[in-house]
Fold each of these.
Amino acid sequence: MTAKRSPNPLHQSKSYVHAPLIILSILFLIPFVWLIMSSLQPREQVGKNPPEWLPRQHYIMHDEKKIFVTPPEEIGIEKVEVKMLEGLKKGQQLLVDKSAYQNGQVLQKVQVADQFEEKAFAAELIASYAATDVYVKRWQLSKITPAEEGRQWFCVKPEDVQVEINAVWGNYGEAVRALTAGEEYKALPLSELMAKSSTPLTDKHADGVTITFLTYLLNTLVVAVLSVIGTVLSSSLVAYGLSRIKWRGSNTLFIITLSTMMIPFPVLMIPLYSVFRELGWIGTLMPLWVPAFFGSAFNIFLLRQFFLTIPSEISDAARIDGCSEFGIYWRIMLPLAKPALAVVALFQFLFCWNDFLGPMIFLTEPSTFTMALGLQQYQSQHGGSEWHLLMAASVLLVLPIIVLFFFMQKTFIQGISTTGVKG
């Protein structure tokens, strides 16, 4: 007989800690999952109440072909489908009330001078529909895309309309096209649109410069990369001087530097705008990345705390070997501080990638807009109604951040866990 092992209290305590973390992780994950699901839904489903998670599309079989259609609407009263033989709508197939079709003619209102009169026009009867039938239209990817060729509406029995789980992957390509300025570019295939985007600042159309999704993306990358370089270099240099070099007033200057974090950005907006206007930088990307080369209080604090964890004997040995102070900073401290530098770089990249207020204040031309401002520009132009496209564009905006975090996850966690730990 073997004695039963008593449960390890340490493992039990770990499970109690992990359970709340898992629950919180799921709660934080729900909005992101909703963003993904909404970006794959058809336009009519995004605003549905109550909301649905899985993307679903309605379809009918017509001429042995599956046609995706809008959600069915009951006709309500008996209607007939006719083909107009005369009048302004000659040759068109119309759906009219049954009472409006009599003796091979359709009564229609026409404007005569400033009044409307009813006139009868010859029409050919094609089909009759009961009040219980439903009306559907051929589904389109977006309101701003041109209508597809062929029949655009159908009247069918309610049981003929089927529903299937179907992700609309075309929302992503349409979102890219929707962010393109110039109506003649709206219906272009994605490959041709990207080819035109290769020279976004020189390709012209009737209204001026052609602005594409790639334009916003390149502008955002330029700002983010230059800001990361400036922040890492300037903040690490200041942090090294405050942590590794002994001089009178260093602690006082460090406290003053930290106190600047309490000044809200709205207080600085007008003075910064005045300075950049005098420099002639308004309307360019320079106000968004040049200040990064002058350090950041939070990043200086983070790197200073990390530099304090590095043994001073390393710097003393380098000085004995004749290394200059800048050489110690560049050749020894920066390589040892890679985890902390990665944290600073990631924080700065995230800030620049998601920044909206800065570009809105300093940028005036659409050719310099960043992704965040480009999305807002699209929303204001189209009334904010194309929510499925906004969701798809938001996914494209968030995706690089997620990929970057997963690639830098180990370094990021290492930098956070070791910063401020004296060893």
Amino acid sequence: MERKNDDARSIWEHLLELRTYFFIALGAFIVGACATHFFHVQVIELLFAPLGTQTLVFLSPLDPLLFIFKIDFFGGFLLALPIILFCLFRFIAPAFGKRSTTFIAWFLVLSAVLAVAATVYTYLLLLPLSVHFLLSIHVPGVVNFFTAEQYINFVLMELVLMALIFQIPSVVVILAFARILDPKILAKKRAVSYITAIIVLSILTPTTDLFSLSLFLVPTLIIFEISILLGRVVYSLGNKG
């Protein structure tokens, strides 16, 4: 009976701890969203910079408000991401040994760095090139006229897709650490992985042209090779451990 009470108390303590971290993460998100809203004019100018002189429009009275809300939401999430990852780490760390806890900490750092790298690549290279290419396409008798909602959805789609691609090393490293995946097998099936990447990206990329596809495919193949190298290092360290 006493053991059941201890187990129930332990579960309740974990739930309270989870609630605490949830509210910390939620508070960080709210602060990040408020900070983004405070600078939303500057943020929107940065997002619209790749368009050059291209004019965007809203099609309904609610569109401007919803547009700003969407900027605030994603800006708040990005700013709160380090706190969210820290709360996740603090919650799950006690369930693992010291060696696993150290690895999880490095894993979260790697994941955050890759997310930043994906954002930088998208904004400085992918978005300007893809927008410039798409705006250069003209159909006789048709004027290129885009809504702000369509544009921000396009930007977010490219950012999310590239962020997922940049997280491939994190996935390979965690699978190698858990002994679920041997990177040598991944290297042997490199050709299959390349073909799969081409097919998947052809379906998921916002546009269907080869130029935009190459902007996603080239970094994907490079990141895939980096993932194999990192996975081999982690896998070999596991053998030594």
Amino acid sequence: MSVADGAFTDHFAAAAAAYARARPSYPAALYAAIDAVVPGHRLAWDCATGSGQAVAPLAARYADVVASDASAAQLSRLVRQPNVHPVLARAERVPLADATVDLVTVAQALHWFAGDPFYAEVRRVLRPGGAIAAWTYDLLRIAPALDRLIAHLYGDILAGCWPPARQAVERRYANLPWPFADSRTLRFEMRARWRCDDLLDYLASWSAVSVFRRRHDHDPLAPLAAALRAAWGDSGVREVCWPVTLKLAQVS
């Protein structure tokens, strides 16, 4: 999703089902690093939760989790849990009381709304000593032949279909506003064991693929599918890896 001049654009509604099915899980080490700086575990706010890839680990750690998103289509895919409370809301305006939140998380979404209004909302809802954790992951890596095909899809076929905010992901959030003094940047790897069909599902969840389909009335993955399957080979399951960057800060 993105915000421009106050308007919300839902980049993921068309691929909400694919997103929920295909997106990978974040590494346990990432949550351990966050746990180390958060003093309380009463309430977490997962902002721009999407279909909730971060929700289950948070729900296991916090008494309650508010999972907000501006996309009703994405929220409809959220797996319901007793202590998870879905909320349709913009990142800059969430129905939470002042100084009630121990942790704000933003998984693969900060690039859509980083700016003063969001950070003011973070400061409003966090308890003293609470924390904000925002992370992003870039292009996956599998094997050289597959990586070249995926890079061709990403950078050539889908050129012009990615929103400008995607550049912040490519730069691993190094250029985003982040107005917190007590802050650190940590690196992790996200891994999954996939079959080729899992890869194709994941690529289909890219927002730029949906944009390409709308503009050109055909599927950009169709011409590549055979080449991807050939490069995948007969190994069945392969390990897939993404570099993950976490920005973590305590807010006094």
